[in-house]
């Protein structure tokens, strides 16, 4: 949808009456027009503002009719803004010059004296062209960056996820920056997407960037974009992720892995909520909601001097911690069934089901790679299973020392079994000691004594 910034039109002409007349005609249609009376001012304005179209005269001195100044101006505009539609204005006598301008990249020409209807028709066409170009640049970038919508098939039925869901519900619709923490594969990206879907920004873009893997040389261009010619490889204008996120959500993943020099550049943009494309002096507003994620302990990174404290404070207005899958045991079966369904469909296998021991094994496995590991495990199981029942061997899980499902209970001491049971029950109860004590039939104090004994 066009916004007011992209409806701004620049008019360059040395004749004040012409400027005034065109400005009024455009104003009557609701367009905002900026007037300048010479080529130098036209270029300055174009550098500082975002125009949707420029109308430029060909001659700026009373004694010239060659159109040379206009042609030069057109060339300079093309260098700075290759996509800006430019309409040249010309008198009857200089039609040849107008034709030459068209050959040099002008989009249309307007003959003086003009008729307002014709002027407005030309402007409308150029505005549509400008919108289409912006839209296609956006789509190009979005296609490169958008992940599939991960909020579909979202599963969180466990007690451990309840406080997480409550927190998301209460903050999703605010503008607050959100830091999502959790081990690898716990679903930080999925939660970021869910926050976006539940905010008022669901119709706007969700743009994600992996901050861990951006080489220093392209960092600013990746985030803030660049203009053609800003550096050797800048063959065309490029929209950065900040601009692409527009009024939507910008999701910065793996923020702890950013080098300190990059942290400084990010901080500056977040503090001022402004940025510039590389090579451009035009400042743009950063309007998106910020969600960031990490599997690291950012406070510990700050203490170790690897992460800027001021940046941490910019990022963590709200912190959401995702529990590991081993603390979300009730989610394992629904997740497993959902992945089984997904891969049965993908690999065209029907009638697959888990054996009871396979389900038990999955529930007591530690899942160091969390939901992503479960996902991959079941893709492999579906692919390799030769019968309808998926048993323990098809899961192909590594031996799990912390779990009696794969080591022998007989080999464990009473204390080890007790410690294991307490840990499992605590996880199932989302870390709530009272609930876990009740489930195990212990008094609160007896339960706490045991927790202390086992260092939990
Ligand atoms: N609640 C959920 N319901 C269903 N699937 C989920 C859920 N959470 C995560 N997944 C799936 O688990 C996988 C990992 O999720 P995601 O990439 O969001 O994790 P992450 O924490 O961002 O990982 P990393 O730290 O490695 O970037 C994805 O395939 C995702 O679809």
From TrEMBL:
PROSITE patterns tied to this protein: RESPONSE_REGULATORY, SIGMA54_INTERACT_3, SIGMA54_INTERACT_4
Entries under InterPro entries matching the protein: AAA+_ATPase, AAA_lid_NorR, CheY-like_superfamily, Homeodomain-like_sf, HTH_Fis, P-loop_NTPase, Sig_transdc_resp-reg_receiver, Sigma_54_int
Coiled-coil ranges from the UniProt annotation: none
UniProt GO MF annotations: ATP binding; sequence-specific DNA binding
Protein name: Sigma-54-dependent Fis family transcriptional regulator
Modification 4-aspartylphosphate, positions: 57
Entries under CDD domains matching the protein: AAA (cd00009)
TM ranges: none
Domain named Response regulatory: residues: 8-127
Ranges of residues in domain Sigma-54 factor interaction: 154-383
UniProt keyword terms in alphabetical order: ATP-binding, Nucleotide-binding, Phosphoprotein, Transcription, Transcription regulation
């Amino acid at each position: 949808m066009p916004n007011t910034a992209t409806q701004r039109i620049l008019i360059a002409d040395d004749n004040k009456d012409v400027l005034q007349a065109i400005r009024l005609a455009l104003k009557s249609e609701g367009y905002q027009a900026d007037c300048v009376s010479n080529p130098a001012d036209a270029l300055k304005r174009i550098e500082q503002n975002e125009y949707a179209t420029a109308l430029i005269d060909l001659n700026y001195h009373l004694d010239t009719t060659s159109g040379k100044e206009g042609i030069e101006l057109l060339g300079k505009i093309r260098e700075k803004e290759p996509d800006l539609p430019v309409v040249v204005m010309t008198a009857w006598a200089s039609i040849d010059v107008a034709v030459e301008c068209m050959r040099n990249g002008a989009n249309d020409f307007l003959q003086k004296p003009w008729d307002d209807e014709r002027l407005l028709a030309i402007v409308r066409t150029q505005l549509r062209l400008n919108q289409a170009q912006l839209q296609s640049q956006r789509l190009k970038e979005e296609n490169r960056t958008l992940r599939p919508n991960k909020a579909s098939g979202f599963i969180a039925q466990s007690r451990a996820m309840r406080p997480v869901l409550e927190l998301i519900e209460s903050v999703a619709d605010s503008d607050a920056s959100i830091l999502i923490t959790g081990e690898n594969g716990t679903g930080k990206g999925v939660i970021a997407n869910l926050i976006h879907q539940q905010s008022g920004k669901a119709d706007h873009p969700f743009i994600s960037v992996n901050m861990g893997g951006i080489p220093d040389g392209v960092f600013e261009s990746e985030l803030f974009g660049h203009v053609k010619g800003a550096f050797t490889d800048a063959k065309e204008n490029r929209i950065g992720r900040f601009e692409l996120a527009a009024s939507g959500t910008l999701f910065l993943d793996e923020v702890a892995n950013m080098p300190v020099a990059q942290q400084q550049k990010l901080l500056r943009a977040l503090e001022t909520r402004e940025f510039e494309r590389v090579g451009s002096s035009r400042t743009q507003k950063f309007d998106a909601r910020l969600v960031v994620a990490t599997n690291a302990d950012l406070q510990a990174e700050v203490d170790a001097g690897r992460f800027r404290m001021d940046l941490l404070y910019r990022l963590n207005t709200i912190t959401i911690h995702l529990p590991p899958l081993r603390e979300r045991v009730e989610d394992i079966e629904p997740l497993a069934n959902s992945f089984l369904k997904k891969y049965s469909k993908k690999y065209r296998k029907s009638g697959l089901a888990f054996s009871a021991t396979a389900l038990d094994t999955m529930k007591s496995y530690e899942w160091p790679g969390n939901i992503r590991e479960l996902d991959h495990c079941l893709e492999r199981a579906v692919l390799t299973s030769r019968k309808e029942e998926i048993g323990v061997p098809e899961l192909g899980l590594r031996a799990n020392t912390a779990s009696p499902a794969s080591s022998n209970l007989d080999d464990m001491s009473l204390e080890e079994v007790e410690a294991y049971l307490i840990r499992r029950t605590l996880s199932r109860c989302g870390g709530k000691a009272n609930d876990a004590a009740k489930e195990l039939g212990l008094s609160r104090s007896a339960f706490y004594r045991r927790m202390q004994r086992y260092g939990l």
